[in-house]
Amino acid sequence: MTSVNTDVLDYAGFAYPVEGLGPGAKRIVIWVRGCGRGCAGCIAPELHASGEPTTLDAIVEELRPFLAEADGLTISGGEPFAQVGALCALIDRLRAIRRGLEVLIYTGYVHEQLLKTGGPTALLERADILIDGSYRHELPNTLRWRGSDNQRVLLLSKHAQRYAKQANLPWPEPRTLQVQALDTELYRIIGIPRRGDLKAFERAMAARGWKMVRAAVEEKPDIVTYDDEDE
Ligand code: SF4
């Protein structure tokens, strides 16, 4: 179901400074919850289910200290286009504090699908960069910022044209993965690992006496879906 309350967002938190999920090494990344697309091998199944929404007031205050210095805002999930109204309102409020804040959005939909349905237009109009298309685990991920090489980096705004060259380059080596402590027992891995990296990490940690446990995955909610026929 699409979020119609634009005062709250189903929000799973943020990280700053983040490198690897868009241009620059100091991005703010926010994660939204809720996705019914079910891409096989999705690395964020803990973000499929809905949770308790957070007020935009609280999110703005959380992000405010980092806005002046950030290279941009990346919105990931979950499926951002399931919460168009709330994300538009959030972007507007953040841009009222930091004029011209660059916005990059990841989506499992393709741009043409989103344009065809009309509903997501307002969010597309606020995005400088869209990384679109289903995550496909069977494909390699050699290209910068993408989870799999079928995904496209679409430079939607005039501002984003400056990334025309780097958007289609391979990932620089070494790649960066970041680890964020959410509490004493829960850590978030930030970035896009190569195929097999997480398993290798798990084995290396096991050899040092650590057991890695994925966050609990709740039942899939009823999430907005756009027509996939053109995919
Ligand atoms: S669209 Fe993204 S969050 Fe949703 S299942 Fe696919 S990879 Fe996972």
Helix content: 10-25%
Distance between the termini: 21 Å
Order of helices and strands: EEEEHEHEHHEEEEH
Number of domains: 1
Order of strands, main sheet, comes to 2-3-5-6-7-8
Index terms:
231 residues; alpha/beta; TIM Barrel; two-stranded antiparallel sheet; 10 strands; 22% helix
Q: Describe it for me?
A:
The protein is an alpha/beta fold and 231 residues long. The protein has a single domain (8-207), classed as TIM Barrel (Alpha-Beta Barrel), CATH 3.20.20. 22% of the residues lie in helices and 19% in strands. The protein has helices at residues 56-67, 84-97, 111-117, 121-126, 197-207; strands at 8-9, 11-18, 27-32, 54-55, 72-76, 103-106, 129-132, 152-155, 178-181, 187-190. A 6-stranded mixed beta sheet has the order 2-3-5-6-7-8, covered by helices on one side. Strands 1-4 form a two-stranded antiparallel ribbon. Helix 1 (56-67) packs parallel to helix 2 (84-97). The longest helix is centred in the middle third of the chain and has 14 residues, at 84-97. The protein is globular, with a radius of gyration of 17 Å. The mean pLDDT is 90. Bound molecules: iron/sulfur cluster (SF4). Residues 35, 37-39, 42, 44, 47, 77-79, 108, 135 line the site of iron/sulfur cluster (SF4).
